[in-house]
Every structure is written in C-alpha cells, then in structure tokens.
Amino acid sequence: MEAELFPAYRERVLAERDGLREALGDVRAAQDGALRHLLSANADTEFGRRHGFARCRNVDDFRAAVPIADYEALGPWMEAAAAGRPNVLSADPPVVFFKSSGSTGDSKRIPVTREFMRTSFFPPYYAAWANIVEHHPEAVRRPDATLNLKHDPAPAADATRSGRPHLGASQVDFGRAFGERLAAEPGSRAPWTTLPSFVDPADHPRRDYVRLRAAMAHDVRCVIGINPAVVAALPHQLVQWWPRLVKDVYDGTVDGRPGPAPDPERARLLDRLAERAGAPLPAHVWPRMEVLFCWTTGLASLYLPRLRESFGPGVSALPAPAAASEGFVAVALDRHPTAGSPAVTGGLLEFVDADEELSPGSDTLLCDELATGGEYHVVLSHVGGLYRYALGDVVRVVDRAGGVPRLEYAGRRTLSDAAGERLREGHVVSALHGATRATGLEIRNATCRVAGRPARPGAPEPGADGPRRYAFAVEPFGRWSQQESEAFARALDSALGGRSDGYRAARASARLGAVDLHRVAPGGFAADWQARVAGGTRPAQVKDRVFQNDDAAWHRLLGT
Questions:
Q1: Taking phi first (over 0 means left), then psi (-120 to 50 degrees means alpha), and beta for anything else, what does residue 392 get?
Q2: What is the largest CA-CA distance in the chain?
Q3: CA distance 293 to 230
C-alpha cells in the first residue's frame, strides 16, 4: 500500500468490517437481501429463465427451483459464458474467469463480474484486512513492509475462447482489473514484485529466490501466504539458500547480478546469528516482524505454533478468510485465532450436514440454524452467476458471537472410504491433534494414504500386503524413540476411531488394520513442497495434503 493511500485504505477497510458486523445483527434480513439481489439482477438470463427466478419470492422458492450443483453440473453454463455467449448466468458480463485452486486442478472457469466484485467480493475482501490495519498498521503502511507470498502476477495470462483473461485469483491485480486503486493487496506494490529481466517467470524456484533476496534488504513486518504451506516453506528456503543469500548481501548482488549496495557488516551479522541458533531463521532477517496472515486450521494448526516462533517471539498469526475462487464464506471480524463470521451480505449461504451425501435435492440449513460443533458442506449462491453451488469445502461451527455462528475451515469434502470408514479431512486432522495431546509429542506435518490390498472377492483372507490400513507419513518435531513412535501410532488409531464411527466399525471387523506410521526425515515436507514447485506448479497452489494420492510425493517423503 502506497503510504499516501494508507489513510483512505484504512477508512475503507474498517468501514467494510463495520458494515458486515452491522449486517450480522439480522442475519436473515441480510441473506434475504442477497437472494433478492441475485434473483432480480439475473431473472432474464438464460439460467434465470430456465429456473423461474422471476417467480421466486423467498429461500424456499429458490430451493425448489434450483437443484444443488457441483462444477460438473454448472460447468456447461460457465463454458458457454467463457465462449462469449452473453446473458447466460449473469446479466453483467464476466470481466475475467478465475481458475479454481481446488483439488480438481486449474481447468475450471469461474466467471467474475463487476457486480459480483462490487457486492459480493469487495466487502468481505476489504474486511479481511481489518485486523492487520487496526492492530498492525506498520505492517501495511509501506509497500515494502509486507512480503506477499500469495500475490503471483501472471506475465501472460491464459484466455478463454472469448478472449477474457483466465487466471488464478492470486494472479489478479484487483486494483487495475476493476478500477479500485485501494483494492491492491498489501505487499503487491513492493519493489520485488517486478522481476529482473534475467529471471524466467516460469522458473518458480528462481523467482522465489530473487524475491526473498530483495526482501532481505527491507524492514518486512508482515508475511501474507493465505495458503500456510507457502509460509512454512520460507524458513526451509532460507536454510537451503543461505550461503548464496549471504554472499549476495555481502557483495551487493541479486543472484550474482548487480543489486543493492554491498553490506558486508550485515552479512557477517546474519551469519553469526544463524550459527548461534544452529540455522538461519526469518527472525534473523526481519527482527521487527509482527504478523503472519494465512489459514490457521487444517494441517497448519499442527505446525503453526512452531512456525510462528521461527518468525519471532511476538509474531501473531491471523486467520485468512474461509473462501475459495468462487466466493467468500466467512471472515474474521475480530482476533479469533481460527474462525470468522459468515459473509452474509455477499450471497446466500446454505449448509448440509457433512456426514450426509451431498445431492441435488439435499435439505439445507441457513446460517442461523447451524449447531455449535457441527460440520457442514457449503452451498453458495451469488449475483456473479453461481446458484446453489457445492463449494467442495467443509466448515465447522466453533462457537457463536452475538448469536451468530463463527465458522472455521475444516477441510475439503473429499472422503477416503476403502472399507466403509468414510474419513473426512477434518477427522484426520482432529485425530492427529488427539494423538499429540495423548502422547505429548509434536509434529511438523503429516499426510496419509490407504495401504495394503483388500481380500479377493469371495475370499475371507486379506490380500498379500495384509488388510487395508492407513499409512501415515509424519514429520516429528524433535527426535522420537521407537517406543514413542509406536505409542503415537496407537493413539492415532484410537483417535480415528473416536472421531469416525465408520473407522471404528471397520477396525472392529478387521476390514481395516492398525495405523502404519512412517517417520519423515526433518525438512521432508518442505523439501517435497520445493520439489513440486520445481516441477512447475505455482507456489501459491502447492498445498498441504491430508490424503496423499501422489505416489512420487509419497516416496519422496519416505525417502524410498
């Protein structure tokens, strides 16, 4: 954020936060208003006419008229819009199409209209920065005060058949694309956002190195990742590149090319600090760091406490919104460590119990009908052209604030079901927490997969590899003895049974064997993250995986 814009930016951010707080005083009225807006705006579209938007007067009418749909069902409408056919899903033409960052890859084309940005996106988007602006203003007052690892501008965007840009949300400059100068993300105008001419934009590791080297010359106070795996990779990159980085600081170069003024004194100080600590830490490079901004739930909830320490003893970790390329679900309007309030003004939010199969005719609940402690599929509708869209995410109600549920991200809705256990990501993460509490052991990261083979049809005995079981790759924090590893595996197996009736039944009937635990060498998950980036995936898209289906990644983690 340019310094001269900060007062106006602060005013806008806090105003949007206060507007959402006010709307939460009457959730039903806010949701009814959002529904009326999308129905009236798009009643004369192809989708609106097909589904009788003009006849819908309330939520019940809308539910009866429009089935719940995933991308496969709504995709043909989106493809028609991407091909340039007007008035398909929205009266307002799409300006860009977002690529989805979900588990199905980057092939989705999510339409993004100006009306969607104005009414559904910008209010929660601005409000999401309120805790930083209000409590850590120095972290966003200068462009170079924030290292934004999420911001990933595309040198040449893909395009749809109609010529509209098709790119990830992390690649869009909202300020330029939608004419809102204040919408530029913190850190998106930092000096290192423009790459030197000698760097190939497709060479992600070198881009990361050059950005990190440039940021070392500035007083960075905030790191934005959204995806916490990007933030977790930064300490690993420092270790990996330390001699090269220190030499660049000493010589006044950037990857050996002319750069800032040489600073031998700082180079020697950094080396002394790293030697004293046993390894370089972000806190050595940026001693006035204040805040990390990323998702704080899921697997990140296991490693964030130790990760935060590496950035400095007083660093806060603030939760990024529960959101996807398709829209916002919840935004933290206070300093709750994991959860946010529902984004009730941006669209209609519906929920289905996460233990139920999501189908076109599933019964849904509204925000004020959710139970504390419950986990739910999210169904989203908004004026940009998504109608009863199954987002693919599961959220958990952690508590209520002012009578309104606060929601945290609990994982993708993906099920692992080898023997009727029906494990969700949330079950696995919760069980890992249970095992750490039961044993007193800490872990840096974990992933799992089904191992073994089922019995042959009609045969009572298991396959050659024994009964199916869950194999966990776990990176310990510190050293574990063999006895501690065995105790952790037993505690994890028990915790999985305590969180999933299906898992407990599958274990009792011997359809599943006991957990098989593999210890990952220190730095193994960070090295795997780096390998995936080196393989061509944009860093912002390389995420933690609860269920590991990539054989190459699994064998990298296990060193096999």
A1: left
A2: 74
A3: 11
Write down the pLDDT at residue 161: 85
For the full predicted model, state whether its pTM sits above 0.85: yes
CA angle 476, 479, 481 (to 5 degrees): 105
State the pairing for strand pair 322-324/316-319.
unpaired
**62-91: pLDDT as tens digits:** 999 999 999 999 999 999 999 999 999 999
> Rounded distance, CA 408 to CA 427, Å?
14
* 311 vs 300: CA distance, rounded Å: 15
In DSSP terms, 317 is beta-bridged to 292
Q: 473 forms bridges with which residues in the sheet?
A: 447, 518
Nearest partner of 322 among 314, 312, 310, 331, judged by Cα: 331
The sign one gets for the Cα dihedral 151, 157, 160, 162 is positive
Residues 275-328 have pLDDT tens digits of 999 999 999 999 999 999 999 999 999 999 999 999 999 999 999 999 998 999
Q: Within 10 Å of residue 415's Cβ, how many Cβ atoms?
A: 15
Per-residue tokens: 471: 């194999």
Instruction: Give CA–CA dist 221/225, Å, rounded.
Output: 13
One-letter amino acid identity for 208?
D
Q: Is 80 exposed, middle or buried (0-12, 13-18, 19+ CB in 10 A)?
A: middle
The DSSP code for 557 is H
pLDDT per residue as tens digits for the range 215-241:
999 999 999 999 999 999 999 999 999
373: helix, strand or coil: coil
CA torsion 459→465→468→472, rounded to 10°? Answer: 180
Amino acid at 29: A
Amino acid identity at 189: R
CA distance 76 to 89: 11
Angle between helices 264-277 and 228-251 in degrees, nearest 10: 130
CA dihedral 293, 298, 300, 302 (to 10 degrees): 140
First to last CA, the chain: 46
